[in-house]
Amino acid sequence: MPKKSSGGGLTATQQAAKFLGVSVLAGAVLAGIALPAVGALGLAAKGSVESFDELPANLKTPPLSQRTTILDAEGDQIATVYSRDRTVVDLKNISPYLQKAIVAIEDSRFYQHGAVDLKGVLRALNKNAQSGGVSEGASTLTQQYVKNVFVEEAGDDPTKVAQATQQTIGRKIRELKYAIQVEEELGKKKILENYLNITFFGQQAYGVEAASQRYFSKHAKELTLPESAMLAGIVQSPSRYDPVNDEAEAVKRRNVVLERMAEVGDVSRAEADEAKRAPLGLKVTQPKNGCITAVQGASFFCKYVERVFLSDPVFGKTKEERAKIWNRGGLTIRTTLEPQAQASVQDSLKDHVYKSDKVAAAATLVEPGTGKILAMGQSKPYGYGKNETEYNFSVNAAMGGSNFGFPTGSTFKPFVAAAALEQGKPPTQSYPAPYQMPYPQQVQTCSGKPWVNTNNETLENEAETEVGPFALKEAMELSVNTYFVEMLGDIGMCPVVKMTDALGVVQGNGDKVPEVPSSMTLGSTGLSPLTMASAYAAFASRGMYCTPVAIESITQTVGGAKKSLEVPKSTCSRAMSEKTADSVNTLLSGVTDSGTGKQAGLSGRANAGKTGTTDERKNAWFVGYTPNLSGAVWVGSASQKVKMTNISIGGTYHAQVYGGDTPGPIWRDAMTGALEGKEAPSFNLISIPSGEKDPKEDDRGDNGRGNDDGNNGDSGFIGGLVDGGTTGDTSGGITLPGGLFQGQGNGNGGNGGGGRG
Prior knowledge:
Elements: H1 12-22, E1 68-71, E2 77-81, H2 96-106, H3 118-131, H4 141-154, H5 158-165, H6 169-186, H7 188-198, H8 208-216, H9 225-234, H10 247-263, H11 269-277, H12 299-311, H13 319-328, E3 331-335, H14 339-352, E4 360-366, E5 373-378, E6 406-407, H15 413-422, E7 430-431, E8 436-438, E9 442-443, E10 451-452, E11 458-460, E12 470-471, H16 472-478, H17 481-491, H18 494-502, H19 517-521, E13 526-527, H20 529-540, E14 544-546, E15 551-558, E16 561-565, E17 572-574, H21 578-594, E18 608-613, E19 619-626, E20 629-636, E21 645-649, E22 652-656, H22 663-675, H23 697-700
Parallel strand pairs: 1-3
Antiparallel strand pairs: 1-2, 3-15, 4-5, 4-20, 6-13, 7-12, 8-11, 9-10, 14-17, 15-16, 18-19, 19-20, 21-22
């Protein structure tokens, strides 16, 4: 609040200022903006008639925006992000040379005058009148500081910035009133400190610390006399005196500052002359702003963290509130990213898929029981150039991913098995599972209105030799399409819906998985790797599903003080019984041991997983886990236009891509590196007696899956989804109702492409 005299009136200083505001300001202060050619320069007095008394009494000084630092789980820096690259420092941490230089060149009488330098105003009036233009201004450092506060408050809003810098009498009057307040409340040293921290020095650097680091790669307190003079000279016109782009102009301006310092007695003539002879001595550090600069390929994870902050209500009730906090910066965000796991994911992706390949790969690792995202990467780097992308293929659309996610193929089948086991079906459950069959005539849904096979759609397995009956264990290992469709017809779709709801399984666009057989069994619906890794983590943690989290803690620095912010927490809930989870773990251990995922199997530690391939082999998946780590790997085309047949990926030729032979090895190598040196706990496996042996089993061989070493169980079957398969999940081509699916697939009635195994 403004200080009052003992009688309740304005102080002598304020009375003088009021007099200036209503008289001299209308004329003399114009020296600071436009004299003598007011009309010629188009300067508007509109809005300047406002009474001096009617202006708000206090200048609101928003916290200065600063850089935000994002750290990994061990406290090492991943990236810095900012709307203003600024690090606020105390005056004691700013070189005395720089303090003197900025005062000498911008306001040499700073310590002698008040908010307004009347001698400076008269001097400017005289010079401007003589020159016939604006050759000199009369704004004090305090007034400049006030103007910078207005600019800072305007942020990146161009309209507000224009209002904060408009050349009008009204703005000058406002600056003066607030300058009087600032002079009384802060004192000269604090004003200088604030000025040096708020001012723009070009090259994206705000404040002296960022500028010192940008141009000289050192702290502001270490600046020499010539370095300080150069920085002080930039302030008047950061673009004109930019030393990076025009060294000669910067040298001339630096020498002007040195000359002025000698004139006012801040340095001796000899010191000034010696400094003038010194080279600029630039040691430029390039601006490093944003997630694009993240280390270890963590750019996509970094952007995910940003999206979490901007979307989660824990950081503010509205989008605008959250954005304001983010843009203000000054945050230190410690994340869940584990350096060892992240490095392993990136190394594996780099080894198996080239960024120039026609397809891409994405991988995400999640910790069971906590929901912590430990690693997230993809083969195409973050960026806007050739073979780069800004889309995060590991997450849903709302968090920067693809619009719909990617069809998962047979990696969806464990959800069906878990739902059936929860309904009381035994792990030895057997079904006829013929090579080819029609979809059930009708299947119950949660709404009570059954799905009806009105078009008599059919599906088939990968090979004609793949004929049941099969028990659950073998059907899972071989990824038998007809088996799981029969299981769905037996239990209905509602148990599967309840299971996927409990596991956080939603489409890439955020919608629930549709209640149609192709989506409910064969993975025709698009999901994200993070969704799949988190869902499978519930199997690893014996039935406890935990929502994924990326942020451990946040510390916010405001005005030199630090405080902790609340962060989103993982919510863990029981998705299935321990018995069901143990049964699924046993089933999926067989997949990596001798089934379609054999090529993905880990050595020396318990592991389980499932392969998946979709329509025309446009997507291939491997999702797997150990008791202490879950991971999902997707390989395919973001456009869903590339068929992975007769294709080279990572320098390896594939006649046909399977979930076991391409994403499987990526998963294996990523998990191996991430788990190196970590404990190797065991699953709580159960005993599942072998089912009745198929009399044709001895003749089946590799079930017609080609050279996949028994690991190709990924042929999908959904309408137009067949990408080939590993274990026998390919189905004949069908045209689904309403033309929703096209191509060969085993699916009916969904909205996407199907899964093979």
